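tool=predict chain=A
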Amino acid sequence: MMRAGTTDGAWQAVTGRRRSGRMAPLSKPGAAMSQKLPTETIEAYRRDGAVAIRGMFSAWVEKLREGIARNMAAPGPDVKIYTGENGGGRFFGDYCNWDRIPEYRDFIFHSPAADIGRQLMGSKTVRLFHEHVLVKEASADVATPWHQDQPYYCVDGDDTVSLWIPLDAVPRERTLEFVAGSHRWGKYYRPERFNKTPLNANDGLEPVPDINGQRDKFNVIGWALEPGDAVAFNYKTLHGAPANNSASEQRRAFSLRLLGDDARFARREGVVTSPPFRGVTLRHGAVMDAAEFPLLVA
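tool=predict ok
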Protein backbone atom coordinates (compact mmCIF):
# COMPACT_ATOMS: atom_id res chain seq x y z
CA MET A 1 0.00 0.00 0.00
CA MET A 2 1.06 3.62 -0.43
CA ARG A 3 0.94 6.53 1.98
CA ALA A 4 0.70 10.20 1.09
CA GLY A 5 3.34 12.65 2.20
CA THR A 6 3.21 15.43 4.74
CA THR A 7 0.64 18.20 4.51
CA ASP A 8 1.64 21.75 3.64
CA GLY A 9 1.33 22.75 7.28
CA ALA A 10 3.45 19.86 8.52
CA TRP A 11 6.03 20.59 5.83
CA GLN A 12 6.33 24.20 6.93
CA ALA A 13 6.55 23.19 10.59
CA VAL A 14 9.42 20.80 9.87
CA THR A 15 11.35 22.95 7.41
CA GLY A 16 10.57 26.45 8.59
CA ARG A 17 9.44 27.55 5.13
CA ARG A 18 6.77 26.98 2.53
CA ARG A 19 7.15 23.98 0.21
CA SER A 20 7.88 26.13 -2.84
CA GLY A 21 11.09 27.57 -1.38
CA ARG A 22 14.56 26.30 -2.29
CA MET A 23 17.61 26.44 -0.06
CA ALA A 24 20.84 27.77 -1.47
CA PRO A 25 23.74 25.33 -2.06
CA LEU A 26 26.30 25.04 0.75
CA SER A 27 29.26 25.49 -1.60
CA LYS A 28 30.21 26.69 -5.04
CA PRO A 29 30.41 24.29 -8.01
CA GLY A 30 33.60 22.26 -8.11
CA ALA A 31 34.38 22.70 -4.41
CA ALA A 32 34.45 18.96 -3.58
CA MET A 33 37.79 17.18 -3.61
CA SER A 34 38.50 15.26 -6.84
CA GLN A 35 38.96 11.47 -6.68
CA LYS A 36 40.55 10.00 -9.81
CA LEU A 37 38.90 6.79 -10.98
CA PRO A 38 40.86 3.94 -12.59
CA THR A 39 40.57 3.83 -16.37
CA GLU A 40 39.11 0.32 -16.22
CA THR A 41 36.27 1.55 -13.97
CA ILE A 42 35.32 4.25 -16.47
CA GLU A 43 35.56 1.80 -19.38
CA ALA A 44 33.35 -0.74 -17.58
CA TYR A 45 30.75 1.93 -16.85
CA ARG A 46 30.52 2.99 -20.48
CA ARG A 47 30.54 -0.60 -21.78
CA ASP A 48 28.15 -2.24 -19.30
CA GLY A 49 26.12 0.73 -18.10
CA ALA A 50 26.90 -0.19 -14.48
CA VAL A 51 30.03 -0.56 -12.35
CA ALA A 52 30.90 -1.02 -8.67
CA ILE A 53 33.11 1.57 -6.96
CA ARG A 54 34.60 0.38 -3.68
CA GLY A 55 34.86 2.40 -0.46
CA MET A 56 34.59 5.83 -2.08
CA PHE A 57 31.95 7.12 0.35
CA SER A 58 32.89 5.34 3.59
CA ALA A 59 33.46 8.67 5.35
CA TRP A 60 29.88 9.74 4.51
CA VAL A 61 27.98 6.68 5.72
CA GLU A 62 27.04 7.99 9.17
CA LYS A 63 25.98 11.38 7.87
CA LEU A 64 23.74 9.83 5.21
CA ARG A 65 22.24 7.47 7.80
CA GLU A 66 21.40 10.51 9.91
CA GLY A 67 19.81 12.18 6.90
CA ILE A 68 17.69 9.14 6.11
CA ALA A 69 16.50 8.96 9.73
CA ARG A 70 15.50 12.63 9.51
CA ASN A 71 13.78 12.00 6.17
CA MET A 72 11.81 8.98 7.44
CA ALA A 73 10.68 10.92 10.50
CA ALA A 74 9.34 13.72 8.29
CA PRO A 75 8.74 12.43 4.74
CA GLY A 76 8.35 14.68 1.73
CA PRO A 77 5.16 15.25 -0.29
CA ASP A 78 5.87 12.42 -2.76
CA VAL A 79 6.86 9.67 -0.31
CA LYS A 80 5.82 6.12 -1.18
CA ILE A 81 5.64 3.35 1.39
CA TYR A 82 4.92 -0.17 0.24
CA THR A 83 4.18 -3.24 2.32
CA GLY A 84 4.12 -6.76 0.97
CA GLU A 85 1.43 -9.38 1.17
CA ASN A 86 3.00 -11.15 4.15
CA GLY A 87 2.96 -8.19 6.54
CA GLY A 88 6.73 -7.81 6.72
CA GLY A 89 8.76 -4.62 6.89
CA ARG A 90 8.14 -1.52 4.82
CA PHE A 91 9.72 -0.46 1.56
CA PHE A 92 10.16 3.31 2.01
CA GLY A 93 10.97 5.51 -0.96
CA ASP A 94 11.27 9.30 -1.05
CA TYR A 95 12.97 11.84 -3.27
CA CYS A 96 13.67 15.54 -3.92
CA ASN A 97 14.31 16.44 -0.27
CA TRP A 98 17.88 17.72 -0.58
CA ASP A 99 16.82 21.32 -0.03
CA ARG A 100 15.44 20.56 3.46
CA ILE A 101 17.70 17.74 4.73
CA PRO A 102 21.09 19.24 5.68
CA GLU A 103 22.89 15.89 5.57
CA TYR A 104 21.84 15.41 1.96
CA ARG A 105 22.95 18.91 0.98
CA ASP A 106 26.30 18.42 2.66
CA PHE A 107 26.90 15.20 0.76
CA ILE A 108 25.75 16.58 -2.60
CA PHE A 109 27.87 19.74 -2.43
CA HIS A 110 30.91 18.54 -0.45
CA SER A 111 31.49 14.88 -1.29
CA PRO A 112 33.42 13.68 -4.37
CA ALA A 113 30.18 12.36 -5.92
CA ALA A 114 29.78 15.07 -8.57
CA ASP A 115 33.38 14.73 -9.76
CA ILE A 116 33.04 10.95 -9.91
CA GLY A 117 29.96 11.47 -12.07
CA ARG A 118 31.91 13.86 -14.30
CA GLN A 119 34.60 11.25 -14.93
CA LEU A 120 32.15 8.43 -15.62
CA MET A 121 30.07 10.51 -18.04
CA GLY A 122 33.04 12.25 -19.64
CA SER A 123 31.27 15.58 -19.11
CA LYS A 124 32.61 19.05 -18.49
CA THR A 125 29.58 19.97 -16.39
CA VAL A 126 27.52 18.10 -13.81
CA ARG A 127 24.09 19.05 -12.50
CA LEU A 128 22.02 17.54 -9.75
CA PHE A 129 18.84 15.89 -11.00
CA HIS A 130 17.63 14.62 -7.63
CA GLU A 131 18.37 12.32 -4.73
CA HIS A 132 16.33 9.19 -4.01
CA VAL A 133 16.24 7.29 -0.73
CA LEU A 134 15.27 3.61 -0.78
CA VAL A 135 14.88 1.67 2.47
CA LYS A 136 13.86 -1.96 2.60
CA GLU A 137 13.28 -2.85 6.22
CA ALA A 138 13.87 -6.38 7.52
CA SER A 139 11.44 -8.86 5.92
CA ALA A 140 10.26 -6.28 3.38
CA ASP A 141 8.89 -8.73 0.83
CA VAL A 142 8.57 -6.15 -1.97
CA ALA A 143 10.90 -6.58 -4.93
CA THR A 144 12.05 -3.72 -7.12
CA PRO A 145 10.80 -4.70 -10.61
CA TRP A 146 13.15 -4.65 -13.59
CA HIS A 147 13.00 -1.22 -15.20
CA GLN A 148 14.95 1.66 -16.73
CA ASP A 149 14.93 5.01 -14.92
CA GLN A 150 14.98 7.36 -17.90
CA PRO A 151 11.46 6.61 -19.24
CA TYR A 152 10.13 7.85 -15.88
CA TYR A 153 12.11 11.08 -16.06
CA CYS A 154 11.73 14.52 -17.65
CA VAL A 155 15.20 14.10 -19.21
CA ASP A 156 16.57 13.39 -22.68
CA GLY A 157 20.24 12.62 -23.29
CA ASP A 158 22.97 10.04 -22.79
CA ASP A 159 25.16 11.82 -20.22
CA THR A 160 23.55 10.50 -17.05
CA VAL A 161 24.64 8.60 -13.96
CA SER A 162 23.08 7.38 -10.74
CA LEU A 163 25.30 6.65 -7.74
CA TRP A 164 23.53 4.02 -5.61
CA ILE A 165 25.23 4.03 -2.21
CA PRO A 166 24.36 1.31 0.33
CA LEU A 167 24.46 2.27 3.99
CA ASP A 168 24.20 -1.35 5.14
CA ALA A 169 26.03 -4.46 3.96
CA VAL A 170 24.24 -5.97 0.96
CA PRO A 171 24.98 -9.63 0.11
CA ARG A 172 24.96 -10.71 -3.52
CA GLU A 173 21.56 -12.40 -3.22
CA ARG A 174 19.89 -9.14 -2.10
CA THR A 175 21.78 -6.65 -4.23
CA LEU A 176 20.76 -4.40 -7.09
CA GLU A 177 21.23 -6.17 -10.44
CA PHE A 178 21.73 -4.89 -13.99
CA VAL A 179 21.51 -6.16 -17.55
CA ALA A 180 24.96 -5.31 -18.86
CA GLY A 181 24.93 -3.22 -22.03
CA SER A 182 21.18 -2.56 -22.01
CA HIS A 183 21.78 1.21 -21.98
CA ARG A 184 23.03 0.82 -25.55
CA TRP A 185 20.01 -1.07 -26.91
CA GLY A 186 18.36 2.12 -28.17
CA LYS A 187 15.07 1.29 -26.43
CA TYR A 188 12.79 2.83 -23.84
CA TYR A 189 10.66 0.30 -21.99
CA ARG A 190 7.25 1.06 -20.52
CA PRO A 191 7.51 2.56 -17.02
CA GLU A 192 5.25 0.85 -14.50
CA ARG A 193 4.19 1.29 -10.92
CA PHE A 194 5.09 -1.41 -8.43
CA ASN A 195 1.60 -2.92 -8.85
CA LYS A 196 2.48 -3.52 -12.53
CA THR A 197 0.05 -0.92 -13.89
CA PRO A 198 1.57 1.43 -16.50
CA LEU A 199 2.61 4.90 -15.38
CA ASN A 200 1.14 6.19 -18.66
CA ALA A 201 -1.53 4.17 -20.43
CA ASN A 202 -1.15 3.84 -24.22
CA ASP A 203 2.38 5.25 -24.17
CA GLY A 204 3.37 3.09 -27.15
CA LEU A 205 6.36 1.56 -25.34
CA GLU A 206 6.98 -2.17 -25.13
CA PRO A 207 7.02 -3.92 -21.74
CA VAL A 208 10.25 -4.84 -19.99
CA PRO A 209 11.40 -8.35 -20.98
CA ASP A 210 10.90 -11.18 -18.47
CA ILE A 211 14.47 -11.07 -17.24
CA ASN A 212 13.97 -13.24 -14.13
CA GLY A 213 12.28 -15.91 -16.22
CA GLN A 214 15.00 -15.87 -18.90
CA ARG A 215 18.17 -15.05 -16.99
CA ASP A 216 20.23 -17.30 -19.26
CA LYS A 217 19.45 -14.96 -22.17
CA PHE A 218 20.82 -11.83 -20.49
CA ASN A 219 24.16 -10.81 -19.01
CA VAL A 220 22.96 -10.05 -15.47
CA ILE A 221 25.58 -8.46 -13.24
CA GLY A 222 25.61 -7.37 -9.60
CA TRP A 223 27.93 -7.14 -6.62
CA ALA A 224 27.96 -7.79 -2.89
CA LEU A 225 28.43 -4.35 -1.34
CA GLU A 226 29.62 -2.79 1.91
CA PRO A 227 28.52 0.53 3.41
CA GLY A 228 30.23 3.35 1.53
CA ASP A 229 30.63 1.42 -1.71
CA ALA A 230 28.64 2.62 -4.70
CA VAL A 231 27.17 1.24 -7.88
CA ALA A 232 27.15 3.74 -10.73
CA PHE A 233 24.67 3.18 -13.55
CA ASN A 234 23.24 4.93 -16.59
CA TYR A 235 19.58 6.02 -16.49
CA LYS A 236 18.89 3.71 -19.48
CA THR A 237 20.36 0.56 -17.92
CA LEU A 238 17.80 -2.10 -17.00
CA HIS A 239 17.98 -2.91 -13.30
CA GLY A 240 16.00 -4.43 -10.45
CA ALA A 241 16.40 -5.83 -6.95
CA PRO A 242 14.89 -8.71 -4.97
CA ALA A 243 12.85 -8.39 -1.81
CA ASN A 244 14.73 -8.15 1.47
CA ASN A 245 14.24 -11.64 2.87
CA SER A 246 16.42 -11.06 5.91
CA ALA A 247 14.49 -11.26 9.19
CA SER A 248 16.94 -8.96 10.97
CA GLU A 249 18.80 -6.72 8.50
CA GLN A 250 17.50 -3.64 6.73
CA ARG A 251 18.83 -2.26 3.44
CA ARG A 252 19.22 1.51 3.36
CA ALA A 253 20.44 3.13 0.14
CA PHE A 254 21.00 6.73 -0.92
CA SER A 255 20.91 7.23 -4.68
CA LEU A 256 22.19 10.42 -6.28
CA ARG A 257 21.03 11.17 -9.84
CA LEU A 258 23.37 13.38 -11.87
CA LEU A 259 23.21 14.99 -15.34
CA GLY A 260 25.99 15.74 -17.81
CA ASP A 261 26.60 17.93 -20.86
CA ASP A 262 23.93 16.65 -23.25
CA ALA A 263 21.04 16.37 -20.76
CA ARG A 264 17.98 18.34 -21.82
CA PHE A 265 14.58 18.92 -20.27
CA ALA A 266 11.89 16.68 -21.76
CA ARG A 267 8.36 18.06 -21.69
CA ARG A 268 5.89 15.54 -23.08
CA GLU A 269 2.29 16.69 -22.96
CA GLY A 270 -0.07 14.28 -21.26
CA VAL A 271 2.77 12.13 -19.91
CA VAL A 272 3.26 11.68 -16.16
CA THR A 273 6.89 11.82 -15.02
CA SER A 274 8.44 10.75 -11.74
CA PRO A 275 9.64 12.84 -9.96
CA PRO A 276 6.94 15.26 -11.13
CA PHE A 277 8.92 18.55 -10.78
CA ARG A 278 5.64 20.44 -10.79
CA GLY A 279 7.18 23.92 -10.56
CA VAL A 280 9.75 23.63 -13.35
CA THR A 281 8.92 25.94 -16.27
CA LEU A 282 11.69 24.97 -18.71
CA ARG A 283 10.68 24.45 -22.33
CA HIS A 284 11.15 21.12 -24.06
CA GLY A 285 14.77 20.65 -25.16
CA ALA A 286 16.16 23.33 -22.85
CA VAL A 287 19.40 23.00 -20.91
CA MET A 288 18.36 22.06 -17.39
CA ASP A 289 19.29 25.43 -15.91
CA ALA A 290 16.84 25.79 -13.03
CA ALA A 291 17.00 26.09 -9.25
CA GLU A 292 15.80 22.50 -8.93
CA PHE A 293 18.88 21.31 -10.84
CA PRO A 294 21.87 23.14 -9.38
CA LEU A 295 25.20 23.10 -11.17
CA LEU A 296 27.73 21.02 -9.20
CA VAL A 297 30.69 21.03 -11.60
CA ALA A 298 31.14 23.88 -14.07
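The chain has five helices and 14 strands. Residues 1-31 have pLDDT under 50 and may be disordered.
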